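Action item from last week, closing it out:
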Amino acid sequence: DEETKLVHPYTESFHIIHASYTYCSEDVRALPSSSRNCFFNDEQHLPFFGDYRNSDCDQLCYVKAVEAACDCMLYYVPYVKAQRACNFTSISCIVKAKLHIFKWLTSENCDCPRDCDSRRYTTDMTVGNLDALPYVMTNSFTDLRLNKSSSIMHFYFPNPVYVKQKQETVMSLISITSNLGGVFGLCLGCSAISILEILFYIYKTIKNSISRKSKQLQFELQNSVATRTRFAGPTTRLTLSPADNLRKARINLLHRSVSKPLPPRGSGPNNTFLIRSSDKRIYRHAYCRTHVIERDNNNGILF
């Protein structure tokens, strides 16, 4: 790939390094890791390395693959458990595991999402053969002892700057709302405010309907109670409240003409007046001494 180059022995190579830095916006960071498919440094902890890096995670997967295939631990891995270190006899097995590392990295045993914030270095390589050194007029490697297994490599940056890239969400909630509002306004001639007004009027209509029904039920209940109090039966007993000071209460009575004279005081129970329907007089005012007013359909009104 662009980050890995293979140098052959007894060659001279020139490597041009290009640097780039990629980071994510706060909107991307707010998304779950399963949606953005990447990890920030502080979201995952790797053994031996600490903060998460995709390259470190791939290296750990390679170590696990070598351990599973060769039953040994690479020499540069910290000693964390009793395991045989790989030696020269394990080189063929290590190379074979290296060739099959891609299958291991894409398996379920190795889950290494990319970095959300990453720095990448890509190279462009130009290779030359060292066999031409004896024929070069200006040879700068005359003091070096080279053999067929030697290689000369040159690394340099073409410029002192790097490319900075920012990852943004394709469409956020705000952009979706604004786009839908623009489409509705263009096609239907309405906006989000119009929709809110419609919902408000629906709410007010339902609220007023419930309020009217509640008042109607309350009015019917009051009328029902008043009707039952008025037509409860042949004899109705009303108990006045204490605030109605019965000794000073003035009760307006309008009765049909009576034919019989008023009975003397005390003729009724508890020294009350008894007005019969046969009396011809009309008594508009009376003072009551008791807390109870009784109406009798046969005898009249009892105080």
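Closing note: The longest strand covers residues 11-24.
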